[in-house]
Design brief:
Blueprint lengths: L1 E7 L45 H13 L4 E8 L2 E8 L15 E2 L4 H14 L9 H4 L11 H5 L9 H4 L3 H8 L6 H9 L15 H15 L3 H13 L21 E2 L9 E2 L15 E2 L1 H12 L6 H7 L3 E4 L2 E3 L4 E4 L5 E9 L2 E7 L5 E7 L1 E2 L2 H7 L1 H8 L5 H9 L19
Parallel strand pairs: 5-14
Antiparallel strand pairs: 1-3, 2-3, 2-13, 4-7, 5-6, 8-9, 9-10, 10-11, 11-12, 12-13
Helix pairs in contact: 1-12, 1-13, 2-8, 7-8
Amino acid sequence: MVSGSVGTGTGTALGAVLLSLVAVPAQALPQAPGGPDTGRAATVAAAGPGAPDDAGLRSVLRSALAKGAPGATVRVDDAGTVHRLSEGVADRATRRALTTADRFRVGSVTKTFSAVVLLQLADQGRLDLDASVDTYLPGLLPDARITVRHVLSHRSGLYDYTNTMFARTVPGFEAVRNKVFGYRDLVRLSLKHAPTNKPGAAYSYSNTNFVVAGLLIEKLTGNPVATEYRNRIFRPLGLTDTFYVHPGTAIPGTHADGYLRPDEPGAALVDSTAQTASWAQSAGAIISSTRDLNTFFSALMSGRLMSAARLAQMQRWTYVNATQGYGLGLRRRDLSCGVSVYGHTGTVQGYYTYAFTSKDGRRSVTALANTSNNSAVLTTMAGTLESAFCGKPSAPSRAARSATVPATPGERYEDIAPGVARD
């Protein structure tokens, strides 16, 4: 199945305020913990990023299918012009074509939503980012030195319980597919293991951190996270495709089915669409669409969701690797053309998501492949960022590199069971 379109118009709820894309300033390589986003030695071309390369995007999607994804899709919102490209199917049984309008599980992109709620609470004076988590949730964690900032930047040292839960991919998933956990249940699973580092000492991605974030949201507001997401983000931004249905198992409306690849070579894909996602909750249980995620990240980076001072704190980067930084629930990726983009990746059983925007929020991209536990597909889909933000490559080497070489060493499983290496 093949589909694609390019059109002008608002494209998102922010369309009325989108302006023509200007040059994105050069950004720094990831800084040491707490470091600023100050500027890279390499110079970005004065003309700025090129127009999105639809042919390049199409090539990435087709490559994802060749490597095992049933379907792949990407939407680019670029100053009122919308690029929509899709390949493959949303449902392997009916062979319905996948489109950019399909809803899907966004996995760890949820972490940015959770961080936004907490940063809004900080703006309201209800949360101190440098206070101990113990101040708000007494006795939850064994080390009172762990601060809220440590949690949001993955520097707490809390062990990621998904490493144990999904050490075997399909059996691990089937064991929790219909299970309902409490937040404290998941924290207890984490605390069965020694910490990975002392608080603040190192970056170590852990879903446990954003389970703690969910507990903080509920303690500080007295409301379920679903209520805070809806009232603070979904409704104000008009995100009509975005839901938090936990512990419900269904994706509302027209959606892409998700297909989980077993660890055993040649084994049949497992339909993983229906699940509580209770193992993830505030770390990964939101459902959305390409349009809504573009709207969300554009609003975030253009300053519509928190104060400028708080947004600057969200972008104090810690090292992930040579081309990536992690802030407070926010990733930065430095592309081959010198442009940096901001957003999050998402992995949940059956779905890989890349959702990123430019520094000013004027060009946003969300890409989805409806499979997971397939590092070749995950790496390939990163190429959508190169084609969307860098435009047509000046030489074939860049496009080939983005589609065939892991552009993000060490990140293959960062969103789910990051300590489990299977490929």
